[in-house]
Automatic annotation (TrEMBL):
Name of the protein described by the UniProt record: Thymidine kinase
Domain of life: Bacteria
InterPro entries: P-loop_NTPase, Thymidine_kinase
UniProt EC number: 2.7.1.21
Pfam families registered for this protein in UniProt: TK
């Protein structure tokens, strides 16, 4: 059997589970091995500009920004041009389904490994669509564990407070929508998530 590079890993973690730090450390290891790495991030989250950065590690690495309205053709063309051995993807939940499909197809066509990082479930309690699409496109799921903010179970969900008020519905993507409000996210387990949401409705 021919050796293939095209593994597709999806590293899922809640907010503050050090996903970007994990990406940066993995990128460093690949750089040290002399592998050609392409780093991608979505236009939706440009708080750090054209870099993936980590507050924990005080370091960053340059990233290509995938435009919001790309139908997947830009994703394919950049991979075709750069011909990386490994693609690191930050914030996969902010890509589109079409862009995720383009990544998966390019990994097969150009025999390239992908390691993508993302959030699984939005503060609305629903799975992000591009994450679901990645699972359908053969990404292998890994979890970066982190304890719940309120108990000892693993965090899987998020509570979003805007100016102190718990949000129970809205757009799953809110990086820009509420730029003026004080946003506080808590990474919690399903039990604590459900308890908080039910209390907000009561
Ligand atoms: Zn909990």
């Amino acid at each position: 059997m021919l050796k293939s590079n095209k593994v597709r890993h999806l590293m899922l973690g809640t907010m503050k589970s050090a996903k970007s730090a994990h990406l940066l450390m993995h990128g460093y290891q690949l750089d040290e091995q002399g592998k050609k790495v392409l780093t991608l991030k979505p236009e939706t989250d440009l708080r750090d500009g054209a870099f993936v950065s980590s507050r924990a590690l005080h370091t960053k690495r340059p990233a290509h920004i995938i435009p919001k309205y790309d139908d997947g053709s830009y994703v394919q063309s950049i991979i075709e041009t750069e011909r990386p051995e490994v693609i690191l993807v930050d914030e996969l939940q902010f890509f589109t389904d079409e862009q995720v499909e383009a990544l998966a197809k390019a990994s097969i066509r150009f025999d390239v490994a992908i390691q993508a990082y993302g959030l699984m479930i939005s503060y609305t309690g629903e799975m992000f669509s591009p994450i679901k699409r990645a699972m359908e496109c053969g990404f292998t799921i890994h979890h970066l564990s982190m304890p719940c903010a309120h108990c000892s179970q693993d965090a899987t969900h998020h509570l979003l407070y805007l100016d102190g008020v718990l949000q129970t519905s809205g757009s799953p993507i809110n990086v820009e929508d509420y730029a003026d409000a004080t946003q506080i996210y808590e990474s919690v387990c399903y039990d604590c998530y459900t308890t908080a949401i039910q209390a907000a409705y009561a």
